[in-house]
């Protein structure tokens, strides 16, 4: 009789990640109609808490977050751990920051397969990403350039330094 130890870790990770990616869509489908307009607000709190857990992962693995490129690579690792081996991405260094290109993501697939809406999937990822980046390094922010959930071929997430307001600019106004 097979036991848990006889199943390869890669298979366990793939199956666990597939279930984890499916859960948000299943909850969305089950509760959105009952909870109504408050559902997004409630769910947002869950994804924000997950972003705090991402900080724990980065600390536990001693991942670097000093530069935009390091931050992007560390965020990609965290997302890969959260979303499993079906999550495929790469980091590109650009002038003034870095861009994460997400080539494959299980969230939109799970959302589509379960009948939940793609736009609600984007809001989940957006909250997670935009909240996680400043948790990892307060000097940086993220913004989405393209998203698979809204019909683009891939996601593009730009990581850049937070622009500090020019003190002289406020004096002149």
What features would you describe in this structure?
This protein has a single domain, classed as Muramoyl-pentapeptide Carboxypeptidase, domain 2 (2-Layer Sandwich), CATH 3.30.1380. A four-stranded antiparallel β-sheet has the order 1-2-4-3, covered by helices on one side. The protein has 173 residues and is of the alpha+beta class. The chain has helices at residues 9-35, 38-60, 68-83, 106-114, 118-136, 167-171; strands spanning 88-94, 97-104, 140-146, 155-161. The protein is 57% helix and 17% strand. Helix 2 packs across helix 5. The model has no long low-confidence stretch (mean pLDDT 87).
Features:
about 170 residues, 6 helices
Task: Describe how the helices and strands are arranged.
Elements lengths: L8 H27 L2 H23 L7 H16 L4 E7 L2 E8 L1 H9 L3 H19 L3 E7 L8 E7 L5 H5 L2
Antiparallel strand pairs: 1-2, 2-4, 3-4
Helix pairs in contact: 1-4, 2-5
Q: How helix-rich are the residues, as a percent range? A: 55-70%
Using only C-alpha atoms, the radius of gyration works out to: 18 Å
The tally of strands reads 4
Share in β-strands: 15-25%
Highest-level CATH class: Alpha Beta
Q: What is the averaged pLDDT score? A: 87
Shape: globular
Can you tell me the number of structural domains? 1
Low-confidence parts = none
Determine the N-to-C terminus distance.
76 Å
CATH fold-level label: Muramoyl-pentapeptide Carboxypeptidase, domain 2
What strand line-up does the widest sheet have? Answer: 1-2-4-3
Count of helices?
6
SS-based class = alpha+beta
């Amino acid at each position: 009789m097979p036991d848990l130890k006889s199943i390869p870790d890669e298979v366990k990770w793939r199956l666990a990640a597939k279930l984890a990616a499916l859960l948000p869509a299943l909850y969305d489908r089950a509760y959105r109609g009952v909870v109504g307009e408050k559902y997004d607000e409630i769910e947002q709190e869950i994804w924000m808490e997950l972003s705090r857990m991402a900080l724990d992962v980065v600390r536990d693995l001693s991942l670097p977050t000093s530069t935009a490129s390091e931050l992007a690579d560390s965020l990609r690792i965290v997302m890969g751990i959260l979303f499993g081996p079906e999550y495929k991405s790469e980091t590109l260094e650009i002038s003034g920051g870095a861009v994460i290109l997400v080539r494959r993501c299980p969230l939109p697939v799970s959302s589509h397969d379960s009948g939940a809406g793609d736009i609600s999937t984007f809001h989940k990822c957006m909250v997670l990403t935009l909240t996680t980046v400043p948790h990892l390094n307060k000097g940086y922010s993220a913004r989405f350039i393209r998203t698979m959930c809204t019909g683009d071929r891939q996601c593009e997430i730009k990581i850049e330094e937070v622009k500090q307001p020019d003190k002289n600019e406020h004096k002149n106004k």
